[in-house]
């Protein structure tokens, strides 16, 4: 499953209460703090609500070799 790396790049101080609560729900505590979440529609919706305050990168899962 793909993961998303989400980084807070702008302060939510002067934002709407909904946006502040969304940033908190994502687990972002301070500027330049990064969290990793699974890529699912719920997280995507939260990111869309605060898209002007966060930077998002998709993380591809590591390919592990299985011994044969």
Q: What secondary-structure arrangement, pairings included, does this model have?
A:
Blueprint: E1 3-8, H1 17-26, E2 34-38, H2 41-49, E3 54-59
Antiparallel strand pairs: 1-2, 1-3
Helix pairs in contact: 1-2
Written overview of the protein:
The chain is of the alpha+beta class. The model has no long low-confidence stretch (mean pLDDT 93). A three-stranded antiparallel sheet has the order 2-1-3, with no helix packed on it. Helices cover 28% and strands 25% of the residues. The chain has a single domain, classed as 2-Layer Sandwich (Ribosomal Protein L30, Chain: A).
How would you sum up this structure in a few lines?
With 68 residues, the chain is α+β, with helices and mostly antiparallel strands.
| Head-to-tail CA distance between termini | 24 Å
Give the helix tally: 2
Report the structural category: alpha+beta
Helix content: 25-40%
Q: CATH superfamily name?
A: Ribosomal protein L30/L7
Q: Examine the secondary-structure arrangement and name the CATH architecture.
A: 2-Layer Sandwich
What is the C-alpha radius of gyration, as a whole number of Å? 14 Å
Helix and strand pattern: EHEHE
CATH fold annotation: Ribosomal Protein L30, Chain: A
Main attributes?
Ribosomal Protein L30, Chain: A; 28% helix; alpha+beta; 3 strands; 68 residues; three-stranded antiparallel β-sheet
């Amino acid at each position: 499953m793909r993961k998303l790396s989400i980084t807070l790049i702008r302060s939510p101080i002067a934002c709407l209460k909904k946006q502040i609560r969304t940033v908190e729900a994502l687990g972002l505590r301070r500027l330049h703090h990064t969290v990793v979440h699974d890529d699912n529609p719920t997280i995507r919706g939260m990111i869309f609500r605060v898209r002007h305050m966060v930077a998002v990168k998709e993380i591809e899962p590591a390919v592990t070799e299985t011994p044969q």
